[in-house]
Design goal:
This protein has helices at about 20-25, 25-40, 75-90, and strands at about 10-15, 45-50, 65, 70, 95-100. Strand 3 (about 65) and strand 4 (about 70) form a beta hairpin. Helix content is about 30%, strand content about 20%. The longest helix has 14 residues, at about 25-40.
Length: about 110
């Protein structure tokens, strides 16, 4: 799922594959997100990257979307698919949004 023309990139999904998230369906979420990107034919504008721990273990499985700065928690394979569908429509995934760091004032 590599994107070679980054000019078309609209969403970069960071999928936590740290220990706690992996115990909370991290692998299944990762595969569901990637499968849905393929199903929606969104591979030209949505890119995914597996990460290690993002430091929000209580919210596992965590998924982060940039450049929007949206952090999502308690993700499941189903909500992973819904996230991709929402991004394709230009929406957020209500119910799983933890915070938006793009709108958080700097200290």
């Amino acid at each position: 799922m590599a994107i070679y023309n980054l000019d078309q990139l609209q969403h970069h999904i960071l999928l936590c594959n740290g220990g706690t998230c992996m115990r909370n369906e991290g692998e299944e979420v990762t595969q569901a997100v990637r499968d849905e990107i393929a199903k929606q034919q969104a591979g030209g504008f949505i890119h995914t990257t597996r990460t290690k721990c993002n430091g929000r273990c209580d919210d596992g499985c965590v998924t982060i979307v940039y450049p929007q700065g949206d952090w999502y928690g308690k993700m499941t394979p189903e909500s992973g698919r819904e996230l991709v569908q929402a991004l394709c429509k230009g929406d957020k995934l209500d119910g799983h949004l933890i915070t938006n760091v793009a709108n958080t004032p700097a200290n």
